[in-house]
Structures are given as C-alpha cells and as structure tokens.
Amino acid sequence: MAKQKTLKILSRPQGNAEEYGRWSVNPYKGCSHGCLYCYLKKGVWANGLGGDTAQLKTGVVSDEHAYHLAMAEIIENKEQIIKDGGLFMTFTSDPCAPETRLLFFHIASNAIEHGIPVTMLTKNADFFQYPTMMAMIEDTKHLMSLSDKGERIVLNGSAFCTWFGDMHQHLVKPLVAFGWTLTGCDELEPNASPNEERIATMKRMSDEGYLTWASIEPVIDFDASRKMIIAALEAGCRHFKIGLLTNNTHVVRKPFCFGEHHFEAFDRDEAEWFVGVVMALTEGRATVYWKQSFYEFLEQREQSGTRSGSAESRQKSSEAQFFGDEPIHGMTVHEFLHQWPHSVDKDWSMFI
Ligand code: SF4
Questions:
Q1: What is the pLDDT of residues 167-217, one digit of tens each?
Q2: Which of 153, 242, 249, 351 is the 20 to 30 A CA-CA neighbour of 286?
Q3: CA within 13 Å, CB half, 120
Q4: Residue nearest to ligand 1 atom 6, measured at CA
Q5: Half-sphere exposure of residue 329, counting CA atoms within 13 Å on the CB side?
C-alpha cells in the first residue's frame, strides 16, 4: 500500500524565496490580485498554485483544519523557527486578502503568543479597520469557532486589534512586521489595492507603533521603485527588501512585456544609479536588503571576463565594489547586506 503523504502547511523555502524567510505558512494556493508578473503562474507549479482565487491546499478540508495543522507544526518546530527568524506569511497567496486573513491572523496571533516573530507581506490596504461593525461581529464569531479557547476572543475597542483577538498590543507589536509589496505599477496588479493606498495603510500602522517594511520586488522600472521608496520612508517604513524582476530564477535580461505594457531591458548604469540613490535615501532611516538578483545583474561585467575565486569571495568583492568598505549603521558591509530576516546570527529585536 502506498504511503500517505503528510499534509503540511509550513514549508522551508529555498532560493529567491528564502531571502524572505526560512519558514513560510501556506494554507492557501492561488490569489485574486491578478498580478501580470505573478510568480505562481510561471513554471511547473503554475497549474497547482496559479489559480485566480485563494483555495485551501489540497487535502485541507476547512479553515479550522488548516489552523490546527499549522499550529501543530509550529509548536513542533518552535525553537528552530525562532532561531531562523520566525514565520513568513505567505508565498502562495496574500495573507491579508478578505478571503484569507481570518485564518492567517488567527495563526499569527497564536504564534506570537508562543513568542514567535511573524512577518506579513501583502498587497491589500483594507485590513486596518473592519469595514462595518456587522462584519467585525461576524468575523469575531468565525474566529471563536476556530479557537479552542473561543472565550478569549473579545471586541476590545480597536477594530484592528480584533484581528489579534484580545491580545495586548505590547505583546503583539514587538513580534509582528507588516510589509507591502510596492512596485509603483498599479496597471500590472489589477485587483490589488493601489500602491498609494498600501502606503497610506503603512503610515497608519507605523503611526500606531507597528513595525512596517516594504518589498520593492519586482523592480520593473527603477524610477517607479525610487518613488515608492521615498513615499514608504515618509510612511515610517523601517526595512526594504529589493529585487529585480526574474523569470523565477534569473534576472530578466531582455525587453519584456506584460499584456499591453512594454518595458526596456534593465540597464546596468541605471541599476548602479538606483543602488546609490537608495543607499543615500535610507541611510539612518531604514535598513535595506539587496536580493541576490541585484548581485546577479551587477556582476554581469565580471561574468563576461574575469571570474575567479569562490562564489562567496566574488560576492564579497562585488558588495565592496558597490557599497564601499565603510561600516553602515554600525555593521560591516557584509553584515548590513545579510541582515534580518535572512541571517540567523542576528536577534530579531535588532530590527525593531
Ligand atoms: S499578490 Fe503575489 S501571489 Fe497574488 S497575484 Fe500578485 S504576485 Fe501573485
């Protein structure tokens, strides 16, 4: 008899995805935002993951089932998850979409109660407040049905707070980071909240004392991304993760188009200009993690001529070439570029 595959909600991403986190929570597959560049719609997994709506993973029969599966895995791996920088939500959908957020916030609340950091990444701007009091009550009933300690879920005055049940904000805030993907290209993300609204919600949450960050990936147009970074800094953004458009594994090196929208190939001089501008803009205000896609692209001259030494030494020399040898934010260049959440050497609190 064939051995039955264990149903898992957590995964340990690799490659480009690992640069966001070492443990991801993926109860859903598919997403309704309809981004024209969506990575779920590419490659061998497209049929399984690239749906236009969020559906529970095959074999998961209900939100409650997903919640209990996820929590069992989280508790079992708690120590390692904390050591690795916490949980990332999510790679296979949007964790703050109306159809997914109840489950994600419920898992997040319980993970936080266990002292586990949680990082969210979304293109939704509408979850800061419940749209109506009735919706809040209905959602709270749903949360109660999910919880094995349902009496703990109460309305406590702040609409946003109810996403985390009745947990005190001083417990939640140090352990959750809310991130928004900002491309500046609304036309490529037809069903997501406009970039401007994402930044407005980022500001409200920063003002409330939540840790906020931005994924500037994919960079499609350098100037559009630069404008997003300026706006996000004004909105209190504390961390940026920046990566170029890839075709899943490698940077796109030719002119590209999405639907009717055509874009020129990335230009190396413009990429260098962009890096310099971002470093100047963020100095002393926010931390930046440059994804491997940037290194891959910026190393192209070296690749065409004199590659030598190990991959690690090539990367270090490439970093020094673009960022200088001076310490940044009190860290060496290498530490600066490999900080939270990718590095396991750093305490999560250094980012707060
Ligand atoms: S938000 Fe992410 S998962 Fe959803 S369609 Fe866009 S790229 Fe795909």
A1: 677 788 888 889 999 999 999 999 999 999 999 999 999 998 888 999 999
A2: 249
A3: 31
A4: 35
A5: 22
Query: Which atom of ligand 1 is least distant from the CA of 33?
Result: 5
Phi, psi angles (nearest 5°) of residue 244: -80, 160
- Spatial neighbors of 55 by CB under 8 A, at least 6 apart, are 28, 29, 30
- 201-215 pLDDT, tens digit per residue, is 999 999 988 889 999
Return the sign of the alpha-carbon dihedral for residues 224, 226, 230, 235.
positive
Closest CA to ligand 1's atom 8? 38
Residue showing tokens 């300026």: 230
Q: Output the six-digit token pair for 32.
A: 């309704």
Q: Which residues line ligand 1 (CB under 6 A)?
A: 31, 33-35, 38, 40, 94, 123, 192
CA of 94 to the centre of ligand 1 (A): 7
How many C-beta atoms lie closer than 10 Å to residue 271's C-beta?
19
Supply the pTM of this predicted model.
0.83
Q: Minimal CA–CA distance to 67: which of 153, 148, 139?
A: 148
